[in-house]
Each structure stands twice: as C-alpha cells, then as structure tokens.
Specification:
435 residues; alpha/beta; Aspartate Aminotransferase, domain 1; Aspartate Aminotransferase, domain 2; seven-stranded mixed beta sheet; four-stranded mixed beta sheet; 14 helices; 14% strand; binds 4'-deoxy-4'-aminopyridoxal-5'-phosphate; pyridoxal phosphate; isomerase; PyrdxlP-dep_Trfase_major; glutamate-1-semialdehyde 2,1-aminomutase activity
Length: 435
C-alpha cells in the first residue's frame, strides 16, 4: 500500500484545530470509508504530490476551477504581476472592465455584471436581485442541484450535502425553508404543477442548466426550453447557476452551447458564475438583463457588496485563464481524452462484470455504479455507494485523484495527456477488478 503516514499525522493534528480537519466538508473521506484525506503539498499541470512524496494524476481539478491544470505559466505570471502591483485596492480598476467584457462577449444574456468572491455569493445575490425585481419571495429549485451554502438553497442540495447525508442542512429557519419549493430535474410537469400552485409568489426558478452536482447530467431535449417558457408565463425569472458549467464545455455558457440550437429559447434572466472564471483564485460573478441588474446598489435598492470583490489578483487570474481557454481546439482535446477514458472504463467494467454507467459531457464525466444513465437526483442517490467507495480507494492507491463523492465529476484539463489517460485506464481496470 502507498505510504501516507504523514497525511495521517497531519490529519490528526488538523482535527485538533480545524473542524473535521477540513475547510470544506466535501474534502472529508467520511463517505468513502473515513480516515485521513490526502494532504497535498504541491501541484503542477495534471499532477499532485502529497506530503509523503506520492504522485497523483489529478482529475479533481479543485472541483472545477483548475481547467488549465495547476500552476499554468500564463496564469501564474498574471498572478505574480498582480501581487507585485498590490493585491487589494478598494477602488475600481481597469482589469475588472476587461474581465466583465470577456464574460459579456461569451454570455450574451449578461448585459451587466457584478463580481463577488464565490459561487455561493453569486447565487445568493441573484436571488436577492430576483426578489427585488419581482417583489416576490419564493424560489423553485431542482432536487440535487447544489447552489452553494446560503440558507435558501441548502434544501435538497446535491454535491457535498448529499454526500454527507445532510441534503437539508440544519440551521435553516423553517420560515426560510418554506420559501423554497423543490421539484425533480428533467420533469417539466412537476415544475408546471409547482408554478400553478405557487407561481404568483415565485420570484425565480433556479437551475443548473447542465448539472454538475449529482453527476454530470444534461437536460433532456426540450426541458430547458420548456422551463424558460413556463417560468415566464408565471412572471418569474429564470436563474442559471453556471458556477460549474460556464466555460466548462466550450468557451461560453449553456445559452451558447451547441446542444441548444435555439439560443433565445434557453436564455436566462440572471446567471451566476464562479470557479473557472477566477483561474484558481477566489471569485464569483453574477449578471443579467440591464433592467434587472439595475436593482443593485448603487443604482437600485438591492444591496450587495464585498471588500474583496473584483480584487486584482482574482481578476487577473480569471482573464489569463479565459485567454488560455479561448485558443482553438482546447475543448475538443479535453473531450477527446475524456472519450478515451470513458471507453476504457466501460471496457474494464464490462470485463469485470461491474455495472457502471458514465455520464459524459465533453471533457467532464461522472461514474455511476448502476446500469443506466443518470437523469435526476433520485437515480443518482440510488447508485451503489459502497462500490463507488471501493473504486475511489482503489484509484487513490494507484495514484489517481478524484473527489471522494459519487455525486462529483472527473474533470479533464488542458494539461492531461494521452500517457496520463493510458495510465488512468490501466489503474481503473485494476480498481474495478477489486470491487
Ligand atoms: N453553484 C454550483 C453549481 C456549484 O457547483 C458550486 C460549487 N461546487 C457553487 C454554486 C458554490 O460555489 P462556491 O463553492 O465557490 O461557493
């Protein structure tokens, strides 16, 4: 077995000082058999090195942001430049205009943008703005979608909360939970029924238009189009949480993704962003139609602010990351490698008689221990957690790093190579044999 003595030791120490030893619960190994998570020391390109000197191929990509691989020279240079010029001003800068322009060009529904510090903040702010604009209070969300850790959206939340068995978090007042209605993803009849009942009080329908938090799940053909249409029939706003999906599958958002030929039919009113747009530094952003965004202070009465918002380091890293991603062929190459992995895993699973299904969208995919593709949260919950845990452990022993959760995805980056893929397929073959 791999020597991870130092990780185990650091974990014991961390437990003394940091709640659960981790600063985000999704990093804990609780759902995959417990014990010490791996403490990483350094990362470069597609690789991690842990504190015991073991090397791993990284498909976690920090839960999404690291799409160009670790310490990409173009991004590193941008961060050094920003740090040299001072990390935080508390004044506007020209850099912010540049990144806002880049986002607007790629995401046509965003007339006006505001930068914040995380995906959580971005989502939280879209809800405030939607409520201010519609003067209504309720939000409809989809079971298993994860929208960060603000009160309103920690109901039937996928990702980390589901992994740890707490999709409905404690600490949320009943009065607030009553403002949220949850319906199954990909079920337009359920959404329509909810709107018929609560539509007059509904400020917005919040959705991950392409889901990344109970596996990688595409909306069924026509679902998003119908969602936008029926939501507007009831005078509510459509909010896309694209924290994980924007710039993931192509240079842009769901609205401009080729799977949705009628762009106007899938255009949201508000969009929340994060992850990739910060190039690995903390960031979030939200935006949408001008008339709606004008609710936000200083123009309007909806208050939203941030000491760190739009800081030159995050903005510079974000610009550099988008520059890397705008090169031709980048997404095609990540997809090519993801297809190779998926094919290799499928063959190995079949060889070992393990029922496994891969939900793949371009360069990202999720592995589910069941015999059918995942289309909603309930199906994802029912997959075999024990087999996933053994797969995860087997991969880790082989030096392959993925998220310790059956709900999370594998992410290809621009740094992965065919050699990495070959090694990963061989590792997965051995891991699948053992489960
Ligand atoms: N929305 C979605 C779709 C996400 O995937 C995440 C993070 N996984 C968030 C919101 C929250 O972002 P953050 O962790 O930056 O607060």
């Amino acid at each position: 077995a791999m020597n991870r003595a130092r990780s185990a030791q650091l974990y014991e120490e961390a437990l003394q000082h940091i709640v659960g030893g981790v600063n985000s619960p999704s990093r804990s190994f609780k759902a995959v058999g417990g014990g010490a998570p791996v403490f990483m020391e350094r990362a470069n390109g597609a690789y991690f090195w842990d504190v015991d000197g073991n090397r791993y191929i990284d498909y976690l990509a920090a839960y999404g942001p690291i799409i160009t691989g670790h310490a990409h020279p173009h991004i590193t240079e941008a961060i050094i430049r920003a740090a040299t010029n001072g990390t935080l001003y508390g004044t506007p800068t020209e850099l912010e205009i540049k990144l806002a322009r880049m986002l607007k060009e790629a995401i046509p529904s965003m007339d006006k943008v505001r930068f914040v510090n995380s995906g959580t903040e971005a989502v939280m702010s879209t809800i405030r703005v939607a409520r201010a604009y519609t003067k209504r209070s309720k939000i409809i969300k989809f079971a298993g979608c994860y929208h960060g850790h603000s009160d309103l959206v920690l109901v039937a939340a996928g990702s980390g909360p589901s992994t740890l068995g707490i999709p409905d978090s404690a600490g949320i007042p009943t009065s607030i939970a009553h403002e949220v209605i949850t319906v199954p993803f990909n079920d337009i009849d359920a959404l329509r029924a909810a709107l018929e009942r609560w539509g007059d009080d509904t400020a917005a329908v919040m959705v991950e238009p392409i889901v990344g938090n109970f596996g990688m799940v595409m909306p069924k053909p026509g679902f998003l189009e119908a969602l936008c249409k029926v939501t507007r029939e009831f005078g509510a706003l459509v909010i896309y949480d694209e924290v994980i999906s924007a710039f993931r599958f192509h240079y842009g958002s769901t609205q401009t993704y080729h799977a949705f030929p009628d762009q106007a039919a899938v255009e949201p009113d508000l969009t929340a962003l994060g992850k990739i747009i910060g190039g690995g530094l903390p960031i979030g952003a939200y935006g949408g139609r001008k008339i709606i965004m004008e609710q936000v202070a200083p123009l309007g009465p909806a208050y939203q602010a941030g000491t760190m918002a739009g800081n030159p380091a995050s903005i510079s890293a974000g610009i550099a990351c988008l520059e890397v991603l705008s090169a031709p062929g980048v997404y095609e190459e990540m997809e090519r490698l993801a297809i190779r992995l998926a094919d290799g895993f499928n063959e190995a699973a079949a060889r070992h008689g393990v029922p496994m299904t891969i939900n793949r969208i371009r360069g990202a995919f999720s592995t589910h221990f069941c015999d059918h593709p995942i289309t909603n949260y309930e199906e994802a919950q029912q997959t075999d957690s024990e087999q996933f845990a053994r797969f995860f452990r087997g991969l880790l022993e082989e030096g392959i790093c993925i998220a310790p959760s059956k709900y999370e995805a594998w992410f290809l980056t621009t740094a992965h190579t065919d050699a990495d893929v070959d090694a990963t397929i061989a590792a997965a073959d051995r891991a699948l044999k053992g489960i």
